[in-house]
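Collaborator request log, item 7. Partner lab (contact: R.S.) asked for a structural prediction of RASF3 protein to inform their binding assays.
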Amino acid sequence: KDVQKEQEPHVYLSKEEVKEKIQSYNSSVTDKLKMTLNANGIYTGFIKVQMELCRPITVQSSQSQGRCAHSNNETAFYLPDGCVNTLHISSTNTVREVIEALLKKFFVADNPAKFALYKRCHKEDQVYTCKLSDREHPLYLRLVAGPRTEMLSFVLREHETGEVMWEAFSIPELQNFLRILDKEENEQLQILKKRYAAYRDKLEEALGGVWKPG
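Returned to partner:
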């Protein structure tokens, strides 16, 4: 269960503290995704971002897997559940830049402003989620939390938390969404028809057994 949590205050580290943190971080890494400290004090490393998108994304590609609908050179499709992407970033990269890099990696044509990056923390048998501000630095959060994703993980979601802001989508995007919904509605209708046809057959079979002539 996700529990929304207020943002924690940002604690800045000295250069020596950063160096010690990176050494400790690298000694705990199990997947070879270590951090590197440069002479100028900027460090680089990797973060993993889980994609939790409820609506289809629009990409500029004609070779996309999954349920899709086409419009010119753009394709709208749903990302698979639990899709995780690994990014190599620096300590200077902001949340907004990370979102843009993720979308660029997937060739997503949607406006980056439609998406938000969340941090997810596990504490006391509960899962806390907090939307990160555009100015925060994900690699710094990764360094402070350590490499264990059960302690801290990143999640990309749609930016809207309430009503869907459909006016933020383009006409081709909306048309693609309608085609996808029509296809899904037809698929669900066929499933329901088969289910009730089978149910009707069983009822007729049962009635035939009850009303046998004496």
